[in-house]
UniProtKB/TrEMBL annotation:
PANTHER family: CYCLIC DI-GMP PHOSPHODIESTERASE PDEF, OXYGEN SENSOR PROTEIN DOSP
UniProt domain EAL: residue ranges: 297-550
Molecular function as annotated in GO: cyclic-guanylate-specific phosphodiesterase activity
Highest taxon listed in the record's lineage: Bacteria
The organism of origin for this protein: Butyrivibrio proteoclasticus (strain ATCC 51982 / DSM 14932 / B316) (Clostridium proteoclasticum)
Protein name: GGDEF/EAL/PAS domain-containing protein
Domain GGDEF: 156-289
Residues of the PAS domain: 5-82
Length: 552
């Protein structure tokens, strides 16, 4: 075969290749019928070599017989340039004769005439979990969870300290991703040096670094964190150039051997995020007064997490009416998730959602809320054509690309019109890069969904400049005691003037009495919400409200 063919395959392969034990890449020249495969795939599946002729047949023979038809249908549609599900799963046989679940994602590369010439594919072996981060060389959060599980089984108490940069996205924007990786690597090295003989260091999710210690007290951890904070502020240098960076930190002491390690892990993440977003990087200890949430104890959050896993056990939905500022008629409702289980009783979302948003299980809960709320609201929407349902969009949902497919499926299953749905971006959205957020919002808008935004201050209004926002909610933290708080009064005056000029629908929330309602109507807002118009209630009670009956 001509050397040029190999060169072309190699250039494409190098573009797609990644370093991972469980992720493989292959590039297929459709005309020459030759492909190049990752060496780790060659070794794991016992392939004949890095370059394979007639690879389609070779690989098909390794796929489980029950999965071959589905795989061939997917490949043929991909090669033909047809739109397919971006991910497909199947079972493939390794060199030991064992079948493992794999998922693949491919892209067809066309020539100038539009003819498919190359197929590049990434395969993930779900039977292997990488246990080391390739950038810091630290064991990852899977290994950390395993370590925590072993300590629990041995009934050993320990402390887990999590640290992260206040805004690593800003570091990447200022210095570039290569320097960003060097900064993370240098910080990890410092952490390893400081933790020598007193604990084990891990890389958590994203750019989080973590330390698990069986010997350190809270006072020890405070001093340790102080040294790390001084290092990133004053001593962190890359290539001889000083790079000052702020970090946040959260810690939890694990002493209850009945609590799941995932709940402890999530609680540490919650304390870390509280440090970053509420305490300017000061160390936060989970399960103390600094979290301003007495019910956020480890027993409750562990029970809530298990309830999600057990089919949303104990969760239910309530709805609060939204009315027009012009004539007081019903125009919409916002959904709130509740949880009830003994001995905790009925727990409001304010007491567990901020914590649970740090856990991967929240993705399933968020989708459950969305699907059930749409089912509940369908009858009302069919009767009131301008009615809209407002649902908070969790960070976990925005973060995942598969949420797009999930949303389409939910809309299709429920039959609820997308134009009557408003998905609201909460403060957790700020954890995402603006590029990712723009992409997700553009998709939602293309589906006909309206985009809402909770506004707590002037800073959160910056999203209005960067994203196509349809609705702004002025939260109760700003609206409460507005008659007595002159500062909030002027802030709301500025926000509503801004949104009014941009023709953005604005909802004044937290209205509890006639006096506040009259104050709210002085501003150019379109919608009003609060206990004065109705407390959150289940859907059957909602349909009995006078507001609803009058709107029919």
């Amino acid at each position: 075969m001509a050397q040029g063919t190999y060169d072309t395959i190699n250039r494409i392969f190098d573009t797609f290749a990644v370093t991972s034990r469980s992720r493989y890449v292959y590039v297929f020249d459709m005309g020459k019928n030759i492909s190049r495969w990752s060496l780790n795939a060659v070794d794991y599946f016992g392939l004949t070599g890095e370059y394979i002729y007639n690879a389609s047949s070779v690989w098909e023979n390794r796929i489980h017989p029950d999965d071959r038809d589905n795989y061939n249908e997917y490949i043929q549609a991909s090669f033909a340039g047809k739109k397919v599900n971006p991910n497909i799963e199947y079972r493939a046989r390794n060199k030991n004769g064992e079948y493992v679940v794999c998922s693949c994602r491919g892209v067809v590369i066309k020539d100038y005439a539009g003819k498919p010439v190359f197929y590049a594919c990434s395969i993930i072996n779900k039977g292997i979990v990488d246990n080391n981060d390739p950038i810091t060389l630290l064991p990852n959060h899977y290994e950390m969870l395993n370590h925590m599980r072993q300590l629990k089984l041995k009934k050993k108490e320990y402390a887990i300290l999590m640290m992260n940069f206040m805004d690593f996205g800003d570091i990447n924007r200022r210095y570039g991703y290569a320097i960003g990786n060097n900064i993370l690597r240098a910080t990890a090295k410092k952490l390893i040096d400081e933790a020598k003989d007193i604990g084990k260091v891990y890389r958590g999710e994203g750019t989080t670094l973590a330390l698990i210690s069986e010997s350190m007290t809270i006072d020890d951890i405070k001093k340790f964190y102080g040294r790390m904070r001084s290092f990133t502020r004053d001593a962190l240098a890359i290539g001889g150039k000083k790079v000052g960076a702020e970090i946040g930190g959260g810690v939890i002491l694990a002493a209850d051997f009945e609590v799941d390690e995932h709940s402890i892990y999530t609680s540490a993440k919650y304390a870390l995020n509280f440090s970053k977003h509420q305490r300017h990087g000061n160390l936060i200890i989970f399960h103390n007064d600094e979290l301003d949430n007495k019910k956020s104890n480890i027993d409750m959050v562990d029970a809530i997490r298990n309830s999600v896993i057990n089919g949303m056990e104990g969760f239910y939905l309530e709805y609060q009416p939204i009315v027009s500022s012009v004539d007081g008629r019903l125009v919409g409702m916002e959904v709130f998730v509740r949880w009830q289980k003994e001995p905790f009783g009925s727990v409001s979302p304010a007491e567990f959602v901020p914590w649970l948003e740090n856990d991967q299980v929240f993705y399933n809960l968020g989708n459950w809320i969305l699907e059930n709320a749409l089912r509940d609201a369908l009858e009302i929407r069919m009767r009131l054509k301008d009615f809209y349902l407002s649902v908070n969009l969790a960070f976990m949902q925005l973060e995942r690309s598969e949420f797009r497919t999930t949303l389409i499926d939910i809309l299709r299953k429920t039959g609820y019109p997308s134009t009557g749905l408003c998905l609201e971006l909460t403060s957790g959205s700020r954890q995402l890069s603006i590029e990712h957020l723009e992409s997700q919002v553009e998709f939602l808008k293309a589906c006909g969904v309206k985009i809402g935004l909770d506004v707590t201050d002037f800073a959160s209004l910056d999203y209005v400049r960067q994203l196509p926002i349809d609705l702004v909610n002025i939260v109760p933290a700003l609206t409460e005691n507005i008659g007595k708080n002159v500062t909030n009064k002027y802030v709301i005056e500025s926000i509503t003037s801004f949104t009014h000029r941009l023709h953005i629908r604005t909802c004044f929330t937290g209205i509890e009495d006639e006096e506040t309602a009259q104050v709210a109507k002085q501003y150019p807002v379109s919608d009003l919400m609060g206990y004065y118009y109705g407390r959150p209630c289940k859907i059957d009670k909602f349909k009995e409200l006078d507001l609803y009956k009058k709107a029919l």
